[in-house]
Structures
1.
Amino acid sequence: MANTTETLSRIATRPTWAAVSLSALRQNFRTVQKHVGAGVTVCAVVKADAYGHGAVECSRALAAEGAKWLGVTSLDEAIPLREAGVEARILLMTGFWRGEESEIVRLGLTPTVWEPWHIESVEKAAAALHVPRHPVHLKVDTGMGRLGVSLDGLPAVVAALKTAKHLVPEGISTHLASSEIMDAPSVADQQRRFEEAERMLRSAGLEPSFVHMANTGAVISRRETWNNMVRPGVALYGYYLPFQRAGREVSGGTLRLPVKPVLTWKTRILSLRDFAADQALGYGGTYVTRAPAHVAVLPVGYADGYNRQLSNRGRVIVREHYAPMVSPESPWEMKSSCLDPKTASAWTPESTPSWPTVPPTKFSATSPNASPESTATRWFSWLGYRQPRTCFAKQCQNVKVNRGLRSRKIPAPAWDVGKADVLLPDRVNPLPVSPGSPFRIVPPFFMVCPSQRNDAHGLGWQILLKMIPVVRLQIVLIFLQRFSP
């Protein structure tokens, strides 16, 4: 009988994993840097374990690509990077807790400060460790209402900075609340307040080297907010939120950034079953087969981070074919159905994600880009700890997915137990990410499309086909009006 030590030392063989393309990550960094220009410093945000991709591996790759700055939430996210040998500058974007200041100075981290006690604590730690000038970045609350000093409280903080002999106010920052809403008046108001704060700082004799306020949305849509440093987050991992104007989604023109998804979630088929028509499947029989069905069981469930609200609504890719998900009813497994091509065509409903609350130890729900339904951060960060991250330098091989105008037949022989990789749920790198296409990417791997029975690429044709009867009727009416006696 194996003892406990032997059991713990075994290698996990469960074939469910997240593949992270470091080459795609590096390419995305180059894309952002090229977009903002060489004169703007890119602070690559790797908070929340690099949005679930693996902070250490991603930070190393970004540093190798030329990233001089990395952004994290707090000290506990920065320590593993330093222990892994990452030497890039690290910005603690949400400050620090009392008692962490000595470790911050010792590790050469750059804290964000906005309260007098922040400055006093770091000043004492720098003096005790004989550090002549430790850099800090001042954060100003210009309208987000979250972190930072208000304009009214700024004079007191500036005074504290001027008396701190061991600190250098290297930067000044703020955070935009509505960077993706193109007609939001609050953005201009925040810019005005931020410029006023910068003038107050410089008039007091303090000269910050870095001025930054642009997150991913502002990097893409608001050049005037770039200053000389930007803080892209989800864009580095291949995604960004849709832009809006007058309450509607807008795209095109400059509202694009050609980034590519970095993470692909994969598994392999655990078991195959055949069911007759009108067979109820899963807890509560929530899914009923419409025709004889070929059903695969996948070793993935909500314990892995897959949301139970996607039951009967998502889909996967099996050997270059889509297959709808059926009832992910347990923590460990879910089903995916492939209808027999001899009797019926495959039905592939689109997914409509709704994300669960993420664990506070993994990711802060009040962190930037934390929109519940429409951001990648929740999916990346909540992808379960049971999923090993497999990082590799080579670019992911493009996967072509067979498409059809309406429904398509998926050959059952294409499935096999334990052999073909299954992409979870339905995302592949070649599909466009920007909101300019007929569909928009909502967190990774998912497409939302007005049609429930058709591919996004067929959406334009669907609309056209629906218009044909209307156009035909219009032609008939015009003909009758002109030629009737």
Note: Residues 459-483 form the longest helix (25 residues).
2.
Amino acid sequence: MSTKHQVPTSKRQRSAKPKTAERAKDRRVFKYRVVTDEPLVLNEGPNGKEASKHPFDLEERTARFGEAIVRFSKKIPRDPTNNRLIDQVVGCGTSIGGNHCEANEGVSKRDFRNMISRCVKESKETKFFLRMLAASEPQLADEAREHYREAKELHLIFASIFGRPEANHYETGIDINLKILWMLELGPW
């Protein structure tokens, strides 16, 4: 049985619809609405007002941390030094939550551990750049310290999840999360 192969051609393929100036005018330009200072929160519950399933929902916590970093970055005055620091802190501060979401959808134990290790690295990097921003803008140092504390807690949580070889899904991290929160608030055992 012989099969026919299509002979390659150098002729350019053309669209079925002719490109006209009228068609270009029909395109509508999407404009973003002005964002207020109020935080925008997306809840995935059926009525949109449900609280998280667990009081220490790490996915929600990392999302709120990312939102707080974005709001904080808008307060920082723009100059050549700060521009680089702002880009870095927004990048690593918001990717913690993204990597955590990706870790929860991991296909294998190895994939999960890889994503959690990224969360550890990004939270550590966030701490560093928040420290640099506090040095660059002393008037914002107090707010940077608050975000630094949260980044430190997230770093400890993800480092403890990563350190457990039997941790292969999110639920195993909840007990560790509670233990770390207790240690941070009440001190060592």
Note: The helical segments are 21-26, 58-75, 80-104, 109-136, 141-163, 171-186.
3.
Amino acid sequence: MIIYNYKNLNTGGNNLMENNNNLGQVKISNDVIVTIAGLAALEVEGVETITSLTDKLLKNNGVKIQIEDGKVTLDVVITVEYGMSIPDVSSKVQENVKNTVETMTGLEVSQVNIQVQEISFKKEREEKELAKQAKKEEAKLAKQAKKEEARQTTK
């Protein structure tokens, strides 16, 4: 858990975190930092999820945190959509997680380590299913048109 001491809250947008205060403490739970990091990872296009079935069973959201000497190291496990560039997606996740955690908490993030655990074919499967449904609909319409044509010729 991170504890901040606030000296002056009216600093006009400057860094609010200062040690040796007289206003009290603000505590930021590691779970809060992990949640911020996880949501920031999901904001990146190409990231399907940050949790696997094992993570869900262990109530882990795919992000692990270490804090040493006031610096945060985050390990983020992601699933990338099929067809996306893994290096590009990973780099964007690292940038977004680092910037978001630092902005929201004021902590220094020293590392964001990415582990690509899976490739998701969800989007590809959905596209194939839509194409399949469209073909069925076309066949149905063609069949109806033939029936109508047959009725017209028998009259």
Note: The longest helix spans residues 122-154.
4.
Amino acid sequence: MENQLGKNIRHLREINGETLEDLGSKVFLSKTTISGYESGRRKPDFEKLVVIAKHFGKTVDELLHTDLTEIQASDINDKSVADIIEIYRKIFPLFSSEETMRNNRFRSAYHLCEKVLEAFTKGEILNGHIVVDILDCFLHAIDETEAPEAVANLMWAIFLWWSQINDIQKMLALQNKLQSNRIDMKGCIQEYQETQRSTEVSEKKQAFLQDFKEMITEAIKSLKSDTKWAELGDYYLALTFLFDMIDTELSTEFNIAIGNQMLVAYAELGNPYAIQFLTTVFEI
């Protein structure tokens, strides 16, 4: 019987430049255990599969059933913070028009969005209320104009807020490491992922979903009800699963798997946002 799991673990470990000891220390297993998984002599239980999958940024389903041996080594370490922000812009596009920019609330929020991205590029720390201000301005712009651009950018702001739910002290320490070149981009991403698993962060995200669930649903429904914006609505619906920004009572891994499948299906149907997302991720 083909040992797809073992082949995938070995390949992902090797393209990430990790020894058996390296991977074992990061997923709390011995090098002998990792070697057993790769050779097929041993099979991990589900909990260990989840830890290994998270380490490599994959789902359990992908590890078990998808041939990942064609994946090439990522050049993420060669990318600057500015490069990462450009990737963010492609995945989370901002929208405007001459008409919407005439609305004071919309214009203020849009400029604040650009200020956030510029600050991220420079490694600056922004006022903690800026995302709230962006959200508030776009909500007023929706009331005043009913513009789909404002609804689209509201979703942008919600995802921004979601991405900022962290253990503040750990994130400041991580930012300091990155700016002082004591950690590379890949290591930064791995440490960030670790912070997302803390009880504190999980509780904050649950509270966020309770507060914003209705707003997210209404925004996506609004986009999907407009023929011109329906594909963006589908795209954001898929992203809520992919980024586990949805309360389905399913595991994070299952939500991510659903989001991935939705994006692939939408891309096959010609959704330009899904195509852009998959193309961007593939290029990384």
Note: Residues 9 and 38 are 6 Å apart (CA to CA).
